[in-house]
Design a protein that fits this description.
The protein is α+β, with helices and mostly antiparallel strands and 374 residues long. The chain has helices spanning 7-24, 43-48, 71-82, 128-171, 178-208, 220-227, 232-237, 257-273, 332-342; strands spanning 28-32, 38-41, 87-92, 102-111, 119-126, 215-219, 241-245, 252-256, 280-287, 291-298, 346-350, 358-365.
Length: 374
């Protein structure tokens, strides 16, 4: 025995299924007339487009939701759908509240056959996060490529100097004072290359979570006082002064001496590089029951607000120094952040505005954890 189901009942059943999908879908679904006029937007679409109320855009042109830059793609997708072919594109379309959004859009015939298609169905999926992740990855790759180029430049110069020293020593035609001068030069260049290699190794260890701390009882006042030794040549060459405001009583802390010296030395060196000649750099230390706070303040070129979120990213170089020869390879602040976090602390940067200097603040916890002296 066969059961005959009328086409009308099948149509009603299809409409019911479509209605369920329309109401419950998490994608933005828009139903259009063939001319592109909106007849209905589903609840998810109302939220995604940040409409003030359901039906707000009914009866208006769908193309009006998009900026002019996307009109050609929209026109082609609508034309394809009117001819019975799916029209698909990736487009940028801000919401009605002007929130930036990227969409993966598919336009298909919903009912009827060419040339009498009666409705078009638009399904738009918000891919903003995916696009942003890809953009960040592209920016990171560009920063890494730039840093590798800078690293090659930084290594080439000392290698050239070492090659020259080797040729001079092999020639034997030297005055008595030459070997001593060459030895000093070789030591400087090898030290420079060693620091670059150590930075690369530290960055790699931090990224892989392979840095271990060798903790001991320390006085943070001594750490800050000795931190000046690392960028001493830069400070002297630029005739810069360091003013320290330290508490009169000891500031005990349990931490890794080498790593903390690296943190404060990098911050001080960074301030020296981006400050003008003759400037004064201020370092302060404050300790309460919960944390130790170290601030490094300069009156250099400062930073724009869009630079701050990426300042501690690996390989990122957002500023030119007054003297480009003093620029690094984009690892110093990333290492600072990694080492501070290993001590359970935080580091942040602020800048009032361009040409008004920068403030780097390190906070180290003095709670019940391993960094609290007993």
């Amino acid at each position: 025995m066969s059961i005959s189901v009328s086409q009308d009942i099948l149509a009603l059943f299809d409409d019911f299924i479509d209605a369920q999908v329309f109401e419950r879908s998490r994608d933005c679904i828009v139903i259009l007339k063939p001319d592109g006029t909106i007849t209905r937007i589903n609840p998810a679409g109302t939220l995604a487009l940040e409409l003030e109320r359901p039906g707000e855009r009914d009866g208006t042109a769908w193309a009006g939701l998009w900026p002019d830059s996307e009109r050609e793609r929209i026109g082609q997708a609508l034309a394809d759908a009117r001819h019975g072919r799916p029209g698909q594109f990736l487009g940028f379309g801000p919401t009605l509240q002007n929130s930036p959004r990227w969409w993966d859009v598919l336009v298909t015939p919903m009912s009827g056959q060419p040339p009498t298609i009666r409705r078009l169905l638009v399904v738009a999926r918000d891919i903003t996060e995916l696009v942003q992740v890809r953009e960040l990855a592209a920016q990171a790759n560009a920063c890494k490529a730039a840093s590798l180029a800078m690293l090659a430049h930084e290594l080439r110069n000392p290698l050239s100097a070492l090659e020259m020293a080797a040729v001079t020593l092999q020639s034997g035609a030297m005055n008595p004072a030459a070997p001593a001068r060459l030895g000093q030069m070789i030591a400087r260049q090898v030290g420079h290359m060693s620091r670059l290699v150590e930075d690369l190794l530290d960055a790699s260890r931090i990224a892989r979570g392979q840095v271990s701390l060798r903790t001991e009882y320390l006085d943070l006042r001594d750490m800050l006082t000795h931190a000046q030794e690392q960028p001493a040549s830069v400070l002297a060459g630029r005739r810069q002064q360091v003013h320290m405001a330290l508490p009169s009583s000891p500031a005990p802390f349990v931490g890794d001496r080498t790593r903390l010296m690296q943190v404060f030395g990098n911050l001080l060196g960074n301030a020296a590089r981006y400050s003008p000649a003759g400037a004064t750099i201020h370092i302060s230390l404050a300790v309460d029951e919960e944390e130790a706070t170290v601030r490094v303040v300069d009156r250099g070129q400062g930073m724009s607000s869009d630079m701050l979120p990426r300042l501690f990213d690996m390989y990122w170089q957002g500023q030119d120094t007054p003297d480009r020869r003093l620029a690094g390879v984009g690892l110093g602040l990333a290492i600072v952040k990694g080492m501070v976090e290993l001590h359970g602390g935080t580091v942040e940067a602020t800048s009032p505005r361009i040409e008004k200097g920068s403030i780097f603040t390190v906070r180290l916890p003095l709670g019940s954890g391993p960094c609290r002296p007993s």
